[in-house]
Design a protein that fits this description.
The structure holds 2 protein chains of 2 kinds.
Chain A (H helix, E strand, L loop, with lengths): L2 H30 L15 H14 L1 H6 L1 H21 L9 H30 L1 H6 L2 H22 L5 H13 L9 H16 L7 H7 L1 H4 L12 H7 L1
Helix pairs in contact in A: 1-9, 4-5, 5-7, 7-9
Chain B lengths: L34 H6 L10 H15 L1 H9 L11 H6 L6 H16 L1 H5 L1 H4 L6 H10 L8 H5 L6 H14 L5 H12 L8 H19 L14 E4 L10 H15 L3 E2 L17 H18 L3 E4 L3 H15 L13 E2 H11 L14 E3 L3 H6 L8 H13 L30 H7 L1 H14 L3 E4 L2 H10 L10 E3 H8 L8 H5 L1
Parallel strand pairs in B: 1-2, 1-3, 3-4, 5-6, 6-7
The chains are: A mainly alpha, B mainly alpha.
The complex binds iron/sulfur cluster (2 copies).
């Protein structure tokens, strides 16, 4: 095994471990912290099914953001949906044989890459052009976009400019999962791409990417509007009653 | 108005999102509470030497007690969707009045002391040490948020800046930095029973006066009972209803509705206040203590139902929190929701046909309706989502012939706050109150010009007081603002009421 392969194998094991451990601990924290009062933003659903539908509209269509700003919605929706498509397409590097649906979406995946980068540039543009968004942007907000754009462009470059031996890449990742290591091709674009992805995985639980678990725990979105019908009492509040 | 030294914003025909102008409201600092009032609420009297350590400790405690705080501080992606949604930003142009920037005042401290990224890479993620300057910013800008939740509607994660403001105020209170307005009022509630400090004899006097007026004007024995044991309904209403205009006209209306519906009801001198300022300062304990008065009054008077009068934030605490804070209410009649809103009661009676209504009595007015922020975005009326928008409009339309809504983006779920909610209804914050009223004033001006609207109805004691005060700043008449039950009152023909002809005899 080459030194390079060792480095990247180590990097991906570490990145996966950090991402999973970090997310598990964050999600546990979110889940364990009580929500002592009923605070859904009303009008809110009065049933559990209604809440599931509200949450679905939120994560599938970005309903609130759509109400908020159309431009941000367009850029962000394009970016996120393209990202899902691209991620889905990447399953072919981890599963053998490649499942039918992944195979079918293969041709669209490439356009997905372009759409993703375009959406990201749109979002980044707002951070310079809209004075309010510029004001609230920290260095990390710019860097996060640069990181994602870097991942997108380095990925696209392998499809459209300097081809990489994808069979070898697949062997490397399957090897990581089965502990039967296989050499990673030493292509510059590939290494950049993989390095940035590992970096993204590592910072995931420490960054604003926490909005992904966060949205599901947001009391203003996930609570049922039934405070008169059902008494809602948290554990620490119950103690005040004794 | 001469005593106020600030520029009143110009009204635009269409909503304009202003370019930001830093620090326009940095000077806006509300009076601080004296140690005696701090202590009356169970808080530290004043900032101690170790206020920073105290502060970090309380932040940590609240993060463990409120999921909203933890999730909201972690989840913001700085998308900017909320930045132009706050009436205080629109009216003041101060970027720190953008909801996300208001949250960031706390988020940057949270990051510095509670997150890996903020501890080791503070510059990168915009984390900062807690300093006196930051505390000053907290005090000034967390008292320029009316906790109206408009920002939460547009945020992809539902981040509610009101939750952050409440937490910030609790933290400041706990370390000895409270605001005078809210904390003095809460201590009055504990001492006397209501926000205005009206003692029992004064209340009894006012109510007797109302009964006499009813006799003189209509020759009908409409009662305004106080502490009547064994009544069916306990009415809890904001204390402003006992004497302020146009609030009292609403109270007169409740009495007429109850009289015509033929139910027995009473007010309570113990729970002579619907508003619960404990919410404004984010203090669960104080909010609970204030709520328990209502439970005690209901038990002592032996009532079967609890109904709340017209008050926005009060209805939030009543509808959303009362069952949690002071429940269970299993000793009340299970056939009725606990509590009910007076508009739910009146709308039921209108539908049943128990009220004799002549809407032409309101023909001298053309109405519009201001959805109060907390009623709109934190409560419900009736059994369907959105009843909080329909029921008040249904009642208004039943008692008035001329009604027009304001522009859709300024009403219902996206209504603008009056500018004085959330504990800001004090003269020392007049500048932010006037500027924050801008979006509502613009929408109102437009319906006045388009439809000849003469009056705006509201169902919140704060909205009514705030509009009475700020309308003149915008060249409009303070009497434009009316209570919804004032309209009901005008239109009800009491059974056995003497007519104008009788007067002439
Ligand atoms: S809750 Fe209302 S006042 Fe407070 S920041 Fe949000 S929009 Fe502004
Ligand atoms: S809308 Fe929500 S996520 Fe976007 S900047 Fe405002 S608070 Fe943050």
């Amino acid at each position: 095994m080459s030194f390079l392969t060792m480095i990247f194998a180590g990097l991906f094991y570490a990145a996966t471990a950090i991402m999973i451990a970090g997310l598990v601990s964050k999600i546990t924290q979110f889940a364990k912290t009580p929500a002592p009062l009923k605070i859904p933003t009303t009008p809110a659903p009065t049933t559990q099914t209604g809440v599931v539908l509200r949450m679905f509209r939120e994560v599938a269509f970005f309903e609130s953001l759509f109400k908020g700003t159309k431009w941000t919605w367009i850029f962000s929706y394009v970016f996120h949906m393209a990202l899902f498509l691209v991620l889905f397409r990447h399953l072919r590097y981890f599963i053998n044989p490649v499942p039918m649906p992944v195979e079918l979406l293969q041709p669209f995946g490439m356009y997905g890459g372009f759409a993703m980068v375009a959406g990201l540039f749109g979002l980044w543009g707002r951070r310079f052009l809209v004075d309010r968004v510029k004001y609230i942007s920290a260095a990390s907000d710019h860097l996060m976009l640069m990181l994602l754009i870097g991942i997108g462009i380095s990925g696209l470059s392998m499809t459209f400019a300097v081809h990489t031996d994808v069979v070898a890449v697949k062997a490397f990742f399957i090897g990581l999962m089965t502990f039967s290591f296989s050499e990673l091709p030493a292509d510059f674009n590939l290494l950049i791409h993989l390095f940035l992805v590992a970096l993204l995985m590592i910072i995931f639980p420490f960054s604003k990417l926490l909005h992904i678990p966060g949205v599901f725990f947001s009391p203003s979105r996930n609570q049922i509007d039934n405070p008169r019908e059902k008494r809602h009492l948290s554990d620490w509040a119950r103690k005040l009653e004794d | 108005m001469a005593k106020y030294n600030f520029k009143i914003p110009a009204l635009n025909e269409y909503p304009v999102v202003p370019e930001l102008e830093e620090d326009t409201m940095a000077h806006m600092e509300t009076f601080r509470a004296k140690p005696e009032f701090q202590e009356a609420l169970g808080f530290k009297g004043e900032l101690g030497e170790n206020w920073k350590e105290d502060c970090i400790e309380v932040i940590g405690e609240l993060l463990g007690k409120y999921r909203s705080l933890q999730v909201y501080l972690d989840s913001c992606v700085k998308c900017g969707a909320c930045t132009d949604k706050c009436h205080y930003y629109l009216g003041t142009k101060d970027p720190k009045n953008m909801p996300v920037a208001r949250q960031d005042l706390m988020r940057k401290v949270y990051r510095r002391y509670f997150t890996f990224a903020g501890k080791y890479f503070p510059k990168l993620v915009g984390a900062t040490d807690l300093t006196t300057e930051i505390l000053d910013d907290w005090y000034n800008y967390y008292h320029q948020c009316s906790q109206c939740r408009r920002c939460s509607v547009f945020c992809p994660y539902g981040i509610d800046t009101a939750e952050i403001s409440m937490a910030a105020r609790e933290i400041m209170d706990r370390i000895g930095l409270g605001d005078k307005y809210s904390n003095e009022i809460i201590s009055k509630v504990f001492k006397i029973g209501n926000n205005l400090g009206l003692p029992e004899p004064a209340l009894a006097d006012t109510l007797e006066g109302l009964e006499e007026d009813m006799q003189d004007d209509f020759g009908v024995d409409v009662k305004y009972p106080l502490d009547k044991k064994g009544a069916d309904i306990l009415l809890v209403t904001p204390s402003a209803d006992f004497f302020a205009e146009p609030h009292v006209d609403g109270l007169i209306g409740y009495g007429k509705v109850f009289h015509e519906a033929g139910v027995s009801w009473t007010l309570s001198s113990k729970a002579s206040e619907a508003a619960n300022f404990g919410m404004f300062i984010g203090s669960y304990e104080n909010m609970r203590k204030i709520s328990l008065r209502i439970r005690e009054a209901a038990i002592e008077l032996g009532v079967k139902r609890i109904i709340f009068g017209e008050c926005g934030h009060a209805w939030r605490v009543a509808y959303s929190f009362l069952n949690t804070l002071a429940g269970p209410f299993d000793f009340l009649d299970p056939d009725y929701p606990v509590p009910q809103h007076i508009l739910e009661f009146t709308w039921d009676e209108i539908q049943k046909g128990t009220l004799n209504i002549d809407p032409s009595e309101n023909d001298h007015m053309t109405l519009t309706y201001h959805d109060s922020c907390n009623v709109a975005r934190a409560t419900r009326m009736g059994d369907k989502p959105g009843g909080q928008f329909e029921i008040p409009r249904n009642v208004i339309k039943a008692v008035c012939n001329n009604f027009y809504d304001m522009a859709p983006e300024t009403i219902r779920g996206t209504t603008f706050c009056c500018g004085g909610g959330g504990g800001l209804l004090t003269d020392d914050l007049m500048e932010v109150r006037v500027k924050g009223a801008l979006p509502r004033m613009e929408a109102l001006k437009n319906v006045i010009e388009e439809h000849g609207v003469t009056n705006m109805a509201a169902i919140c004691a704060i909205c009514k007081s705030q509009f009475t005060k700020v309308l003149p700043f915008y060249g409009m008449d303070m009497d434009m603002i009316v209570s919804v039950h004032q309209l009901v009152s005008n239109a009800i023909i009491l059974t056995g009421q003497k007519t104008d002809d009788d007067d002439d005899d």
